[in-house]
């Protein structure tokens, strides 16, 4: 996997660190994914991932707004009343 050298000792190929993928590797991966899943399935999956990320951002924003609106003691008191110990 290392760089090949010519007889003169100069590097013929650009050295890559172990574990990195070239553009050709990524193109092959994309083609294989397209063959397995099809174009419609991949776009649906990516749309679902986007919806999940938007929902997560929305919930995090709501949590930040709740913390900024309520006093510090109120948050702790609400958290303590919601937890039931059996």
TrEMBL record:
<comment type="subunit">
    <text>The Tat system comprises two distinct complexes: a TatABC complex, containing multiple copies of TatA, TatB and TatC subunits, and a separate TatA complex, containing only TatA subunits. Substrates initially bind to the TatABC complex, which probably triggers association of the separate TatA complex to form the active translocon.</text>
</comment>
<dbReference type="Pfam" id="PF02416">
    <property type="entry name" value="TatA_B_E"/>
</dbReference>
<dbReference type="InterPro" id="IPR006312">
    <property type="entry name" value="TatA/E"/>
</dbReference>
<keyword id="KW-1003">Cell membrane</keyword>
<keyword id="KW-0812">Transmembrane</keyword>
<keyword id="KW-0811">Translocation</keyword>
<keyword id="KW-0997">Cell inner membrane</keyword>
<dbReference type="GO" id="GO:0008320">
    <property type="term" value="F:protein transmembrane transporter activity"/>
</dbReference>
<keyword id="KW-0813">Transport</keyword>
<comment type="function">
    <text>Part of the twin-arginine translocation (Tat) system that transports large folded proteins containing a characteristic twin-arginine motif in their signal peptide across membranes. TatA could form the protein-conducting channel of the Tat system.</text>
</comment>
<dbReference type="GO" id="GO:0043953">
    <property type="term" value="P:protein transport by the Tat complex"/>
</dbReference>
<feature type="transmembrane region" description="Helical">
    <location>
        <begin position="20"/>
        <end position="37"/>
    </location>
</feature>
<dbReference type="GO" id="GO:0033281">
    <property type="term" value="C:TAT protein transport complex"/>
</dbReference>
<comment type="similarity">
    <text>Belongs to the TatA/E family.</text>
</comment>
<keyword id="KW-0472">Membrane</keyword>
<protein>
    <recommendedName>
        <fullName>Sec-independent protein translocase protein TatA</fullName>
    </recommendedName>
</protein>
<dbReference type="InterPro" id="IPR003369">
    <property type="entry name" value="TatA/B/E"/>
</dbReference>
<keyword id="KW-1133">Transmembrane helix</keyword>
<keyword id="KW-0653">Protein transport</keyword>
């Amino acid at each position: 996997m290392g760089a090949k050298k010519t007889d003169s000792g100069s590097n013929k190929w650009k050295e890559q660190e172990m574990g990195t993928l070239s553009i050709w590797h990524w193109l092959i991966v994309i083609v294989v994914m397209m063959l397995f899943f099809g174009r419609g399935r991949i776009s649906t999956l990516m749309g679902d991932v986007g919806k999940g990320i938007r929902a997560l951002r929305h919930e995090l924003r709501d949590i930040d707004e709740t913390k900024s609106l309520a006093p510090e003691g109120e948050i702790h008191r609400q958290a303590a009343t919601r937890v039931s110990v059996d």
